[in-house]
Amino acid sequence: MTKAILVHQTGGPEVLSFEDHAVGAPGAGQVALRQTAIGLNFIDTYQRAGLYPVQLPFVAGNEAVGVVTALGDGVTDFKIGDRVAYQGLVGAYAQERLVTADRLVPIPDAVDDQTAAAILLKGLTAYYLLFKTWAVARDETILWHAAAGGTGLIATQWAKALGATVIGTAGSDDKTALASAHGCDHVINYTTEDFAERVREITDGRGVDVVYDGVGKATFEKSLDCLRPRGLLASFGNASGVVAIPDITVLARKGSLYVTRPTGAHYFSQRAELLEGAKALFDAVASGAIKVQVNHSFPLAQAADAHRALESRQTTGSVVLIP
């Protein structure tokens, strides 16, 4: 018997219940993990609240790092004692769990457990957005919303390393300072400035090549105003609510724009793609191109407090739960 955070009904952070949870032995193709660090992500809050439906009851969470403690039949890529990480698998808020081996990635010695748990989901999100959704090229200009958040701090550093001019938004002076220190050439405090007007000023009226928007409803329309003709808005999150486009001709009026709503599930459906992205991410961390900010940690039993902090914008950088 182990401990885990279960969700028996959807709702606010108070529905997260720390309780006993049976794990069992690994089946064919599975490994058993003793988890050492768990990543906190906005998708966890969406699932808890019911925005992204998950069959009830479920163990919350989608990302963690652990040590392999047992192997099921047919597992040959890992051995007992290996340090591994995964993302995109519901059930992460637990001291121990079973995971299908082909969803695991090895962690290099240069990356510690808390860093790996803090960056895999966010870092792979940054990877597919910057390299696949819109392959950022040297001298292009991008806008990244919530640049002081966990994904933002990774992505803006990576984009800067690729040679882009990086504009970020954040919601306080402290957060704009943090974003400036992590790759942003320009940072806009959206609580005191009109970010669309500032983007036009910064780009001499041209607009940016691509906007990466994990905020959602609150920033969507003005994000379109930040784009150059035929630019792309990559809407990858709903922190402020779900985006709706009642009149698609707005894209024509604002410059024959493109909009996409990508998800990691489609970019990493094949193991080779997952390993490619994870290697690129860990290499960027090991080289120093990405410096990781794990600014907050909570005991697993206090997952509800962690959700409250994340949803109320009290966090910067990445947050981990410690089993």
UniProtKB/TrEMBL annotation:
Keyword Oxidoreductase: yes
Keyword field: NADP, Oxidoreductase
Xref: PROSITE patterns: QOR_ZETA_CRYSTAL (PS01162)
Xref: InterPro entries: ADH-like_C, ADH-like_N, ER, GroES-like_sf, NAD(P)-bd_dom_sf, QOR-like, Quin_OxRdtase/zeta-crystal_CS
Residue intervals of the Enoyl reductase (ER) domain: 11-321
SMART domains documented for this protein: PKS_ER (SM00829)
Domain of life: Bacteria
GO CC annotations on file: cytosol
GO molecular function: mRNA 3'-UTR AU-rich region binding; NADPH binding; quinone reductase (NADPH) activity; zinc ion binding
Protein name: Quinone oxidoreductase
Organism: Devosia litorisediminis
